Amino acid sequence: MKKIHVILILFLFLFVVGCSGGSFRVEVVEGTVTLDGIPLEGATLTFIPSDSNIGKSAYARTDMQGTFKLTAVQGGTSGAGTMVGHYRVAISKDVPSREPTAKEITDQERGISPDIPILHIIPEKYNDAQTSGLTAEVVKGKNIFNFDLKSNNQ
Q1: Percent of all residues in the chain with a pLDDT value above 70, rounded to a whole number
Q2: pTM of the full predicted structure?
Q3: Is there a domain that residue 91 lies in?
Q4: How many domains are there within the chain?
Q5: Which site in 32, 70, 147, 152 is 20 to 30 Å from 46, CA atoms measured?
Q6: Does residue 14 lie in a domain region?
């Protein structure tokens, strides 16, 4: 009888451990993005771990005041943050260079992507975490990062 109890307890332990995989502790990450000192609305931020074994990629989008709250890509709760670690950061804001034509709108509704050129609002170097020069060290607790980007004219 004792042997059955031990086996059941062991099975229960393995079941609980096996089903809990994938959860990770995240830290709050928020801040602002400005371009030449002006809040940048609608920018997309991507945090990419510098060490692929530490951290989780995360993303955010800025609001009208240029503020953001980061969300871990895999299993993250919206706005909750990401794991402790060192990150390279990419920031982009792209818009269509023109309004779509009536035909292009119809094509979009059919699932066909129109070929409208993209206009980069901020310098392209910021679009890539390898070239942006932007980094962030996420630590335990609340993390605030403010990124003041410079246009090509500055």
Answers
A1: 78
A2: 0.73
A3: yes
A4: 1
A5: 152
A6: no
